[in-house]
Amino acid sequence: MSGLGSLGASEALSVAQALSLPAESYGNDPNVEMVWAMKAYQHAEVYFNLIGSVDPRHLKLTRKDDVIYAAFRGDFPDLRIDVLDPEDLKSPAAKEKWRPFCMKFETEVEDFNYGTLLRLDCSKEYTEENTIFATRIQFYGIEIARNREGYNDVIFHHRAAEPVK
């Protein structure tokens, strides 16, 4: 077993305490980056299993889904969300547009700016080629919209059609 599951109780506590320190305390510590990457991957895995098991149109990701969705579609009414263009998230112009959206939720959504994995093409699984790093609130905005607008239905229906093992 590798990753966080291989840690003992005291080691896990040390990691938890370390992660509570301000980011500036670390610089570019590869061990901390690995822990964050594992946490982001675990979040992605849980979310993908969820949309494959529960009709995404009825899924509630946060207590603020309605507010997040309204703000997202208000700020990004024409953003294509079925297949994301990385430039719509990462270009300098895109970052300027995303920043005010993200900051609306600074006190509203816990961990709004945590790094999170986001699928580029919502009809496909998380793979290296189909994944981009985004903030948690970007993930919520896009995934709540994908769920409500029916784009994640393909995952649910594909998983429902798979034979039971």
UniProtKB/TrEMBL annotation:
Pfam families hit by this protein: PBDC1
Ranges of residues in domain Polysaccharide biosynthesis: 32-155
One of the record's GO cellular component terms: cytoplasm
Protein name: Polysaccharide biosynthesis domain-containing protein
